[in-house]
Design a protein that fits this description.
The protein is α+β, with helices and mostly antiparallel strands. Helices cover about 30% and strands about 25% of the residues.
Length: about 100
């Protein structure tokens, strides 16, 4: 099941406290970027972020879910109303993620 653009725009609005947030459609789902790094996405209308130590610390009770079959587990972000929480979660997650490798 592909995610709805309406839900993706809702997530983007909830992340609007952050500058340099963007998203891109990929295979019917949406990857979210912050300052050039993919940190999560919307999969089957679920907002999932990559698992990092700091993110896991902030989201102790959050469930791990697979975005799609064969993928690594990600954190299912169930707290979507608190923009400050989301901003902090994305920032601490971003700090632990590597930059994408440059293409030759």
């Amino acid at each position: 099941m592909a995610s709805s653009l309406e839900y993706v725009k809702f997530i983007a609005e909830q992340l609007s406290e952050l500058e340099e947030i963007s998203y891109r459609k990929m295979f019917g789902e949406y990857a979210f970027y912050y300052k050039g790094k993919v940190f999560g996405g919307v999969y089957d209308n679920r907002f999932l972020i990559k698992i990092t130590k700091a993110g896991k610390q902030l989201c102790k009770d959050f469930e791990e879910q697979l975005p799609y079959k064969g993928a690594k587990p990600m954190l299912f972000v169930s707290e979507l109303e608190d923009k400050n929480f989301l901003k902090n979660l994305v920032e601490v997650t971003w700090q632990e993620l590597p930059f994408p490798k440059k293409k030759k």
